Amino acid sequence: MMQHLSKIRIPSGGEKVYKDECVFSFDNPESETGLYVCLNSFLGFGRRHVERYFRKTGNAVFLHLRRIKRELPKSDEEPEKKKPTKLAIGIEGGFAVDEKKYDFEEHNSVVVLPDWTKIPLPNTEIPDMVSLSVAAVLAAESATKLAEAAAMAGTWEGEKRIVSKHAENLVQLDNGKKIPPKGWKCEMCDLTSNLWLNLTDGAILCGRKFFDGSGGNNHAVDYYAQTKYPLAVKLGTITPDGADVYSYDEDDMVEDPYLAKHLAHWGINVAAMEKTDKTMLELEIDLNQKIGEWDVIQEAGSKLEPVYGPGYTGMHNLGNSCYMNSTMQVLFSVPEFKQKYADQAESYYDSAPLDPTNDFNVQMAKLGHGLLSGDYSKPEEPEDSNGIKVVKPNGIRPHMFKNLIGQGHPEFSTKRQQDAQEFLLHLISVIERNSRNSSNPCDCFRFEVEERIKCIQSQKVKYTKRADYILALPIPLDALVNKDEFAAYESKRKEVEASGDRLDPKELVRPKIPLKSCIEAFAAQEMVDDFYSTALKAKSVAQKMTRLSTFPDYLIIQLKKFTIGDDWVPKKLDVSVDIPDDLDLSDLRGQGRQPGEEELPEEAGDQSEKVTVDEAVVQQLADMGFPANACRKAVYYTNNTGVESAMNWVMQHMDDQDFAEPLQVLGQPKRNDFAVSEEGLAMIMSMGFSGEQAVRALKATDNNTERAVDWIFSHADELDQPMETEAESASDSQPKYRDGPGKYKLLGFISHMGTSTLVGHYVCHIRKEGRWIIFNDEKVALSEHPPKDLAYLYVYQRVQ
């Protein structure tokens, strides 16, 4: 050990210590061979990766962490299960996934290579420098926990409600009303629950109707539309500690620091009030605990048989990471991803930089190997004669991958629940950036979309093509095939609720819609009112039709279940879609320009001067949180007629593929130049990099400065190569398409439970070896009743 003392270090404040998990595998201190932490770099390694690192760096001294985890026998006096207080799984206050008790036994030592000399700890004879380093590593907060804490800063569970802008100067009418302490009823119907007191005039009205039909009749929302009185408090939630206050104007739950004064105006003494109704969060949790979508998708009540081995490895929920878990399970069921990452894992490890935690390909290889090797998917150990069993790691915890894929992203860097479709597109973008000099597995998803625009007045046409990865299908609610059954259910539900009761959730009837109807709605002609016709040199009306020019090897279909209600509140459609195992999309193939069709002329010159928008309205929309480019489009396409019409346009076009892209008037040549962020350029150059290197990095990362710095370090071998010309870059960036018959077979699907993408839970089902398998975070089992009709994303594999 003495010959290596010069390389022993003590971790300084803020330095990351990777003592929870290997940087190349999912081995950890509880694995059979434990974890080895380098006392120079503080990176952790599983045993099979230690020598590789020693040969590359010469770092020979490691702290070996070995922890034995034992499950304790159940006590006769089990504590009462706590009711969840957060709509999440596996986090404090959320739905419990493991209520067992454990005992831990630590066996730590110092190991010196190349002979694997082992020195058990504690030991008074080891050099002081080694003792200090070991003590500091053991005392340090792990890199994983530091990243978790950083992500929690923006998570919705701990998010404090904003103080309403109306609270301080709220107008309250002197109309003589006094609110009694009980006996409340909606002033527009007979409901006696889910009641809201308007703080301006004292009106008591029922709240919104929930996705399952329960709740109110929307009378409080309708009342706001008439009066614009902004704040209401939920009766029954008022206590000395506060209450549920909603701002209709700000469209959110808010804080009212003057609530006691506002309630006193209506004769309500806050100090004497007790809670008699459920808060909005409690109602959301209750709704998702019902037998509806939540239980159906998780196949609750079925005796699911666990499966183990290669390809059947679960992923632990790292606090609302189920959207990522389901997406990665589906991706690694596609052969291209296995071949790119899992099969080549060793080569990525051998060529990894000294800090592999920030190398995307290494972390993808680690994830692929972890999911497909079977190393982390083994049956539980049997109990000994005392009812105690040693618990070995099962399933993987992809902390490093989650931190890396979310790095610099405003949403995926947090622990908030995210949308699986948005995450998939983000992941595809990152994979493409990291596959510039190698095969790109996402090529198997890419297809070309053909859009045909026909000017009604001139009868001339224009064909445009674009690349896409997901076929987003609308859900035509007028195409339901169980109209009579659903109408009878709705009638019975309303009748029962009018009497103050509720239907048994088992009687729930959802609208049933064939996937064929969704495809027909996608293929239907659409009228475009604000079309700039280059033939007329003026705005006109046009017909738009969308087809597919190519069919990918694997087709991802998204059902557009998330939409905006008439009250501008995001909601999820609770529908059942009839999904076939075999799908033929041959009729969707585009044919290009047909004989006899005359093309719209290309208009010479830049038409940007003709595009005039009211920048004040654009700024008003942008202040609401919408992308600036989308706001400009909204104002332009509504002819500068004001905020309300522009807002309506935004709501109608939020799902457009080019929603946040710059305004491009048809007939106006597109700009290919890339505007480099001056601030990012200056920051990167201040670190000692050249202007050309900084521009290249910012261009590769869409002006994300943090990711650009990482890009420079991971592409050091490219920095001295001549920078591509714009023509070369455009040539290289041309998408490549695979094509074949439009016939597919269902491979897997991802389902979402909950009323919003911001809450709930994701689960995926994958067909493997002729069987349907459910992947519910770390739980992997044979599926008895795969809920194909309730899913959100579907993956189809092309068949010949």
TrEMBL record:
Gene3D superfamilies to which the protein is assigned, alphabetical: Cysteine proteinases (3.90.70.10), DNA helicase RuvA subunit, C-terminal domain (1.10.8.10), Zinc/RING finger domain, C3HC4 (zinc finger) (3.30.40.10)
Source species, domain of life: Eukaryota
Gene Ontology BP terms: protein deubiquitination; proteolysis
Keywords: Hydrolase, Metal-binding, Protease, Repeat, Thiol protease, Ubl conjugation pathway, Zinc, Zinc-finger
GO molecular function: cysteine-type deubiquitinase activity; zinc ion binding
InterPro entries: Papain-like_cys_pep_sf (IPR038765), Peptidase_C19_UCH (IPR001394), Ub_carboxyl-term_hydrolase (IPR050185), UBA (IPR015940), UBA-like_sf (IPR009060), Ubiquitinyl_hydrolase (IPR016652), UBP13_Znf-UBP_var (IPR041432), USP (IPR028889)
Residues annotated as the enzyme's active site: 322 (nucleophile), 761 (proton acceptor)
Full protein name: Ubiquitin carboxyl-terminal hydrolase
Source organism of this protein record: Lingula anatina (Brachiopod)
Taxonomic lineage of the native organism: Eukaryota, Metazoa, Spiralia, Lophotrochozoa, Brachiopoda
This protein's encoding gene: LOC106159070
